[in-house]
């Protein structure tokens, strides 16, 4: 399986769905309230009100539509699939939520186990077009290249994201993640990097969702290269999942089982031309009152592998 395969599959989904109707909602445009008021309403307003205030919009109106309009949660796809996030899968769409996770990597780097958590991710939409994502790994513990465990904070990241286009069955987004070297090199952190990424979400058939994306991580700074050993890395993700229950069927509401594939490829000359492919079977369920339980396990399929396996569990609150 190659990098080209991931890119082609994502492009086929985007192109294949791009020509369909823009959804069954009214074509009336949401109210323009100004950038500041749109941000306040997006963060504190009833984004889930019925009838929905969500409307489709296109790449052609990227500079003229959505920036001064409040975000509303998108409708389900025409097959009934909700726009939700999974472990081991690209986002693709906007959310308004916070999730706490804990992960455990067995025999990381062939030198003991590694632990990450609690780690928090916060999504804050500020308009129909713009959102900020915050990744805050509070604790990371591992041996790294030493013989004793070292525990410290991880590298934080802030990602401005924009919606390129959104119809009932397809969302395309783009973001640039800014990673700050707030962690320790022993734990594989201490890296300053910029990572642009394209992502998509699609509901092509019934409650089947296909999503994915492609990214390029570009570290910078003397410490990132010499101390942390950072590499320029291309990444690609493709995931598919099927929803089996309705939202209100708690504690098994919106029950989805998914499988994600993540490929990373070093692209510089500072080391071996390493390729890593990881499969992530996962699930997500609505347990009630907009609380969700998520879990997944990363299983490397290439050598050398970063770890034997890595389970991750998460608790999420949509607000």
Description of the structure:
The chain is mainly beta and 319 residues long. It has a single domain (3-22, 78-318), classed as monomeric porin ompg (Porin, Beta Barrel), CATH 2.40.160. Helices cover 10% and strands 43% of the residues. It has helices at residues 3-18, 35-44, 222-227; strands spanning 97-105, 114-125, 130-137, 140-142, 150-152, 157-166, 170-179, 193-205, 208-219, 233-243, 253-266, 275-288, 291-300, 310-318. The two termini are 39 Å apart.
**Element-by-element helix/strand order:** HHEEEEEEEEEHEEEEE
Question: Strand tally, please?
Answer: 14
**Amino-to-carboxy terminus distance:** 39 Å
* CATH C-level category: Mainly Beta
Tell me roughly what share of residues is in helical segments: 10-25%
Principal-axis shape equals globular
Annotated CATH topology = Porin
How many distinct domains?
A: 1
Can you summarize the main beta sheet?
12 strands, antiparallel, barrel
Summarize this structure briefly.
The protein has helices spanning 3-18, 35-44, 222-227; strands at 97-105, 114-125, 130-137, 140-142, 150-152, 157-166, 170-179, 193-205, 208-219, 233-243, 253-266, 275-288, 291-300, 310-318.
Key terms:
single chain; 319 residues; mainly beta; Porin; 3 helices; disordered N terminus
Helices and strands, with pairings:
Layout lengths: L2 H16 L16 H10 L52 E9 L8 E12 L4 E8 L2 E3 L7 E3 L4 E10 L3 E10 L13 E13 L2 E12 L2 H6 L5 E11 L9 E14 L8 E14 L2 E10 L9 E9 L1
Antiparallel strand pairs: 1-2, 1-14, 2-3, 2-4, 3-6, 4-5, 6-7, 7-8, 8-9, 9-10, 10-11, 11-12, 12-13, 13-14
